[in-house]
C-alpha cells in the first residue's frame, strides 16, 4: 500500500523531499523513471511535427484524478503512455519521406554533411535540398544559390539547378546559380556540365559561366572558391550582379542614381568590412557612394 501511495503522489508531483528520497530507493523506481524519460526524450524528424507529444508532455505533469485502485490506475497510465509513444514513432516512420532542406541567410555560410559523407558549404542566401531515403540509389541535390562541393567517390553525383546540371563521380567543385547566371569551377577531378541541351567537361582549374544564355570559359589558379576565404570575386560580370552579391554579404539596401549597372566588372571585394567592399567595387567603375545609415547605401555616378 505504501508503494502505491508513493507512486500516486510521484505522478502528481506531490512527494515531499523525504518521500522522494524513499521512493528513489524503491525497487521499481528505475522502471517508472525510464518510461517517463523515454517519452520525454523522443525526438521526431525536424520535418515532422507531432502535436500529440506536446499534449503528452503536459499530461505527464498534470494532476491525476483520484482512482479507486491506485495499482490499476498506474497500469492504465503506463499502458497508455507506451501506446502513445508507439503511435508517435509509427507516425514518424510513416510521415518521414526523407526530404531534407537547408537555407542560409544574409552573410551566413553553412557546412553540411550528406548521407555519403560528402561535404557541402553553402554560401550566403542559398538553398539546398536532397532526399536521404533515395540517396543510395541516386546521389542528387537541388541547389538555388552557390555552394562548394567535396564529393566522396562513388556513383554519379548530380547538382541540379534551374539553369543546368553538374555531374561528377568524386571531386571538388563550385556551383553558382544566381538569377541569369550559371557558373561552375572544377578544382579536382572531372566535372560534366549540361545546360540548354548542351554539354561540356571541366578539368581542374577550368571554369564556365553562362550569363543570359551566353557561354564563356576561363581558367583559374585558385584551389578553392574565394568566398570560402571571405571574398567575392568576379570576371566580366555585370555590375548589377556584383551589387546584388554585396547585398547578400552585407545587411544593406542599395539605391542608385544615374548608374549603368550593365558595365562589366572584374575584381573582388572583402566580406566583413562594408567600406572596403564599397571602395573595391565603386572605384574601378568610377562611382561614388554615400552610407546613409547602417542599412542604406546610395551609389551614384562620380561627379566630373
Characteristics of this structure?
single chain, 304 residues, alpha+beta, Jelly Rolls, Phage tail protein beta-alpha-beta fold, 3 domains, 13-stranded mixed sheet, three-stranded mixed sheet, 7 helices, 36% strand, elongated, FecR, sigma factor antagonist activity, transmembrane, transmembrane helix
Write up what this structure looks like.
The protein is elongated, with a radius of gyration of 29 Å. The strands form 3 sheets. Strands 1, 2, 3, 4, 5, 6, 7, 8, 9, 10, 11, 12 and 13 form a 13-stranded mixed beta sheet that branches. A 3-stranded mixed beta sheet has the order 15-18-17, with helices on one face. A two-stranded antiparallel sheet has the order 14-16. Helix 3 (29-40) runs parallel beside helix 5. It has helices at 2-11, 17-24, 29-40, 51-61, 70-95, 239-249, 274-282; strands at 99-103, 110-113, 119-122, 127-131, 139-150, 157-160, 165-168, 172-178, 181-188, 191-195, 198-202, 206-211, 214-219, 231-238, 253-257, 264-270, 287-293, 296-301. Strand 10 and strand 11 form a beta hairpin. It has 3 domains: 2-95, no CATH class; 99-226, Jelly Rolls; 230-301, Phage tail protein beta-alpha-beta fold, CATH 3.55.50. It starts with a helix and ends with a strand. 29% of the residues lie in helices and 36% in strands. The longest helix has 26 residues, at 70-95. The chain is of the alpha+beta class and 304 residues long.
Amino acid at each position: 500500500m505504501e508503494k502505491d501511495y508513493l507512486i500516486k503522489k510521484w505522478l502528481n508531483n506531490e512527494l515531499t523531499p523525504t518521500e522522494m528520497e524513499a521512493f528513489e530507493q524503491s525497487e521499481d523506481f528505475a522502471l517508472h523513471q525510464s518510461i517517463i524519460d523515454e517519452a520525454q526524450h523522443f525526438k521526431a524528424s525536424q520535418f515532422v511535427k507531432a502535436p500529440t507529444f506536446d499534449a503528452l508532455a503536459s499530461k505527464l505533469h498534470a494532476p491525476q484524478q483520484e482512482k479507486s485502485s491506485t495499482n490499476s490506475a498506474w497500469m492504465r497510465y503506463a499502458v497508455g503512455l507506451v501506446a502513445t509513444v508507439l503511435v508517435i514513432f509509427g507516425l514518424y516512420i510513416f510521415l518521414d519521406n526523407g526530404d531534407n532542406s537547408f537555407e542560409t541567410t544574409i552573410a551566413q555560410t553553412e557546412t553540411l554533411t550528406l548521407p555519403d559523407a560528402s561535404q557541402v558549404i553553402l554560401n550566403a542566401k542559398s538553398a539546398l535540398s536532397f532526399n536521404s531515403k533515395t540517396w543510395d540509389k541516386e546521389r542528387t541535390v537541388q541547389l538555388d544559390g552557390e555552394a562548394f562541393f567535396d564529393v566522396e567517390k562513388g556513383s554519379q553525383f548530380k547538382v541540379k539547378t534551374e539553369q543546368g546540371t553538374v555531374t561528377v563521380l568524386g571531386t571538388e567543385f563550385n556551383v553558382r546559380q544566381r538569377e541569369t547566371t550559371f557558373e561552375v569551377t572544377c578544382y579536382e577531378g572531372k566535372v560534366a556540365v549540361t545546360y540548354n541541351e548542351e554539354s561540356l567537361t571541366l578539368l581542374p582549374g577550368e571554369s564556365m559561366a553562362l550569363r543570359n544564355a551566353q557561354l564563356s570559359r576561363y581558367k583559374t589558379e585558385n584551389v578553392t572558391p574565394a568566398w570560402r576565404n571571405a571574398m567575392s570575386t568576379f570576371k566580366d560580370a555585370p555590375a548589377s550582379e556584383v551589387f546584388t552579391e554585396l547585398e547578400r554579404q552585407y545587411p544593406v539596401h542599395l539605391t542608385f542614381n544615374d548608374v549603368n549597372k550593365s558595365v562589366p566588372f572584374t575584381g573582388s571585394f572583402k566580406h566583413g568590412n562594408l567600406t572596403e567592399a564599397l571602395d573595391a567595387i565603386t572605384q574601378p567603375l568610377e562611382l561614388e557612394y554615400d552610407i546613409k545609415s547602417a542599412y542604406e547605401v546610395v551609389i551614384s555616378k562620380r561627379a566630373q
